Amino acid sequence: MPIPHPRISRHVSTRRGPALVVLCLVQFMLVLDDTVVSVALPSVRDELGFSAAGLTWVVNAYFLAFGGLLLLFGRAADLLGRRRVFLGGVALFGAASLACGLAQEPWHLVAGRFVQGAGAAMAGPAALSLITLLYPGTAERAKALSIWGGIAGLGATMGLVISGALTGLASWRWIFLVNLPVAALALALLPRLVGESRATHTARLDVPGAALGTGAVLALVYGLLQAGESSWSEVTVLGPLALAAVLAVTFLAVESHVAEPLVPLSFLASRTRAVAHGATLLFSVAMFAMAFLLMIHLQTVLGYGPLKAGVAYLPYGAGILVGMWLSSHAVVRLGIRPTLVTSFVISAAGMLLLSGIAPGDGYASGVLPGMLVSSLGCGLSLPTLTVAALTGTTRENAGLGSALLGSVQQVGGAVGVAVLVTLATRHSDARADSTGPMRAVTEGFSLALTVAAALLALGAILIATLLTARRSGSAAGARGTRT
After folding, report:
1. Quick check: 90 and 123 in contact, CB under 8 A?
2. Could you tell me which of 199, 194, 11 has the C-alpha nearest to residue 87?
3. HSE-CB for 427 with a 13 A CA cutoff
4. Is the four-CA dihedral 336, 69, 166, 293 of positive or negative sign?
5. Which of 56, 75, 188, 373 has the fewest CB atoms within 10 Å of its CB?
6. Is there a contact between 133 and 5 (Cβ–Cβ < 8 Å)?
């Protein structure tokens, strides 16, 4: 059944192409800020006087707010208006970016990063839900979401490139200040390009469900982030994880009894969406950990400076663009399942190639092959996962579907950093005395990426066995929607 177009204000004519460009540009900015501070952390520490423990919260504050508040704001966008929530989120993100760029004390920057994350949690799902409603046809939606998913992957990668360039050539403050023109452009243009849309029936926000769901995700992400800094047996890790489990169980119990739940249990019953979210979790675990570990490996083992390490990632962005272009065609012609299985296998192969990087390897022979293969798989995977996760979403729940996908990605990223990065670090520490520091770090890096490749292979198996063997719509129907 075709998905209806959103209600459009009679004063605003919807121009889908320019609207897609603006929405994708904002998404690029939001995802970029997941990783943009990574290379700049030493400079931030030196200028603002961060402690080692405090510095991690420059990254974690954004991660925590973004991942924890997605469900709340995703559903709020459905009920209050997607354009309104999107514009509010962009304005909040821009103001917080300015505060981060002007920060004079450590707490200024951490607070600004948390507010940035809150703005991203407002704008991200609202933007994605607008796209799903602006492009209702099978083929056109696949292409639009392929562009969206590819831009998201490109943003995560280019954050490292931009961070290295701006930190090396100017100042770390510019990694935040460059957001201001993008935010201003979106605030000026989007109201002229797309009208308001919201759920057609009058509904109230499920406040108990919102509190429990948001609390569960916040506690889970916080516990996983803490696990990356200390032992899994510490109360600072076990406490939040136990709280997350209790809140999640209570959330499910409450949602099964309220008339208008935050997350209708029927929404979670779709097999395609369930498999897509499971695969997204595995993919996010592997890719977030790889990006973190590879950047460290380039600088500590291969001796790259911040600028060189950032520039080294440029081919990764090019590979994502190629994969994104292939994805938009493969989903329509082959279907979701074959495209996802192929993309996960390619990503796993790239991860194994990267795991073989050793001290003394050259860039072209040691780093580039794995980077290109991995990026191609990433460009194929992310857009297709987005298409699968949003299958069947409507005007009533597009924001919720987008928020669930974003929450899974953020939780997966936190798991990847907490588990795989910790695995690499502890293996390196255990082997340092017997093999030497550089060899030990290399072994830890290789072990973590090998596990990441195994997770991607597991994802390919789950997709092949559990995902319904059908195309994203019939081939004829897909061709029929082309213009």
Report:
1. yes
2. 194
3. 18
4. negative
5. 188
6. yes
Looking at residue 12, the DSSP 8-state letter turns out to be S
Q: Are 359 and 442 in contact (CB under 8 A)?
A: yes
Round to whole Å and give the CA distance between 218 and 226.
12
The angle subtended at Cα 278 by Cα 204 and Cα 139, nearest 5°, is 80
Q: What CA–CA distances, in Å, run from 266 to 77, 246, 260, 270, 271?
A: 20, 22, 12, 8, 11
Show Cβ contacts of residue 219 under 8 Å, excluding neighbours closer than 6 positions: 240, 241, 243, 244, 247
Q: Are 327 and 150 in contact (CB under 8 A)?
A: yes
Answer yes or no: are the C-beta atoms of 401 and 129 closer than 8 Å.
Answer: yes
Torsion of CA 418, 421, 427, 432, to 10 degrees: -130
* Lookup: tokens for 215: 């609390």
Residue 104 Cα to chain centre, angstroms: 29
Question: Crossing angle of helices 336-355/314-333, nearest 10°?
Answer: 160
**Tokens 């950093």, located at residue:** 417
Q: Pull the structure tokens for residue 299.
A: 């600088």
* pLDDT tens sequence across 264-299: 777 777 888 889 999 999 999 999 889 878 878 887
* Structure-derived torsion over alpha carbons of residues 219, 124, 120, 75, reported in degrees to the nearest 10: -50
Q: How far is CA 122 from the centre of its chain?
A: 14
Say if residues 134 and 78 touch (Cβ distance below 8 Å): no
Query: Are the beta carbons of 2 and 137 closer than 8 angstroms?
Result: yes
CA distance linking residue 142 with residue 383, whole number of Å:
8
- How far apart are alpha carbons 352 and 453 in whole angstroms? 6
Token duo for residue 191: 């109201």
Q: Are 237 and 227 in contact (CB under 8 A)?
A: yes
Number of H helices, E strands in the chain: 19, 0
Tokens found for residue 290:
């790889």
Tokens of 108: 């200024």
Rounded Cα distance between 217 and 479, Å, is 40
Residues contacting 170, CB < 8 A, separation 6+: none
Tell me how far apart the alpha carbons of residues 134 and 2 are, in angstroms, rounded to a whole number. Answer: 12
If one counts every other C-beta atom within 10 angstroms of the C-beta of residue 9, the result is 13
In the chain, which stretches have pLDDT less than 70?
Answer: 1-14, 52-53, 138, 150, 153, 156-157, 160, 164, 168, 200-203, 228-229, 306, 395, 469-483
